[in-house]
Amino acid sequence: MFETQKIDTFFSGEKNLLDEKEKIFLSRRMKTVRFFKLFLPALTALLLGVGVALFDFNTNSESSTLLADEEKLYFEKFRMKNTVFEITGQDNKLSIIKAEIVEEANPGEKIYTLKHPDALTYDKDKLITLTSQKGAFDQNTQTLHLEKDVIADYNKQMEIKTNSGSYDFAKEYGFGNEIITGSGDRGEFKANQFTFDKKKGIVTLIGDVYLKSQDMELRTPKEVSLYLNDKKFTAQKADIHKGKDILKGDTVTAYFKDTKTFDIEKAISQGHTEIYSEGKKAFADRGEYDAANNVIKLFDNVRIVDNKGNDATADTGIYEMAQKTFTLEKNVKIRRKDNIITAPKAVYFQTKDEFRFYDNVTVIQDNNKATAKNGVYYTKKNIAELEGNVVITQNGNSVKGDKAIADLNTSQSRLIAKKGGRISGKLIESSLKNKRKK
């Protein structure tokens, strides 16, 4: 059963004792293997060549290299969904930028385009969030640029909208050159441009600025700087409207309750200051507005002018907006044509259209001079009434009485005695002699 000769041959080292059939089979098998080893690579090369010939008639060595480079660039670009960038600011607080899709513009440059980005940063303890439709982030300079439907929420107190804006996380500075609007609970603003200095906590609104609170409006063609941490703003060449009253100033600084309402508590005007109220104009070098008492105080070179030709000046003035009264103090002088009234203190009652004078009133009209303790000037009638120790002097002659009426239209004055009172006078001797000669 066993072929002992083959077994013995195997152990004895004799290798060529296979029968002829097996030798023929092994020889054919080796030839087949060698054929496929040589033929298959050639076939593969042939098929690739046919594929190029059939499906890429315009392919040459140059375009093939370019296509390979483009594919290499594509795969080297950074592209990821729902990516987060974290930035540590100078205050050691973390700012975050997120986007639905982040794609690098050029490989290795670390400049990314963003789809639906949103950012989060802090102004001290106040949270600021930013969203937009698209944007770009330069990781080298830590600069974020947002475009289309940009919305910023400042600590849930004020919502700001614009069409484009940029923010430098390294310098903590932002800006935008398109129209910006903002709104709070009872306040709003609008401007042509803006800047934001996080270090100083200042938002500057530039060009055709409009700022509104519940009962006041501010307008300026220049700029308004909002000091968010100090709850105040400064405005250049501003008009503040409250009802029918207008306050103007070269530089107006106002303090408000919060950024939700912009309700002004106090305002200070530096430089040329003006007040307009129902046909009356008041001017001064500076002014202060007290919202709690609804009062405007004017200082230095105070002047009030109306449409009847009355011109009143004083060192200081107080305008009580609710009562519609102007109180003038120190060196008060009212001039109407050649007629002048002076007093240490005067109060103008706007609803009655009259001045009341206190503490030594003087009326000068041509050669006449009248003095009294108190007086009233009726601007519509252009008549002054004087009371208390009245003295009228003309050409050195004087008469005394309880009351006098000075008609500023005719430049004539007359004394009136109270019931039971007397009118007394003193005539200069030279004037009596002149009369006797006549």
Please characterize this protein's 3D structure.
Helices cover 16% and strands 56% of the residues. The longest helix has 36 residues, at 20-55. It has a 32-stranded antiparallel β-sheet that branches. By secondary structure, it is α+β, with helices and mostly antiparallel strands. Mean pLDDT is 80; it is low at 1-18, 35-68, 70-75 and 427-438. The N and C termini lie far apart (190 Å).
Shape: rod-shaped
Give the CA-CA distance, first to last residue: 190 Å
Name the structural class. Answer: alpha+beta
Give start-end ranges of low-pLDDT stretches: 1-18, 35-68, 70-75, 427-438
Average residue-wise pLDDT: 80
Strand residues, percent: over 45%
Q: Portion of residues in helices? A: 10-25%
Brief summary of the model shown:
This protein has 438 residues and is an alpha+beta fold.
How does the SSE layout of this entry go?
Elements lengths: L3 H9 L7 H36 L5 H16 L2 E10 L5 E11 L6 E5 L2 E6 L2 E6 L2 E5 L4 E12 L3 E11 L4 E4 L3 E4 L4 E4 L1 E5 L4 E5 L2 E4 L4 E4 L2 E5 L4 E11 L2 E12 L7 E14 L2 E11 L4 E11 L5 E10 L4 E12 L2 E11 L4 E5 L2 E5 L2 E5 L1 E5 L4 E12 L2 E11 L4 E5 L7 E3 L2 H9 L1
Antiparallel strand pairs: 1-2, 2-3, 2-4, 3-6, 4-5, 5-7, 6-7, 7-8, 8-9, 8-10, 9-12, 10-11, 11-14, 12-13, 13-16, 14-15, 15-17, 16-17, 17-18, 18-19, 19-20, 20-21, 21-22, 22-23, 23-24, 24-25, 24-26, 25-28, 26-27, 27-29, 28-29, 29-30, 30-31, 30-32
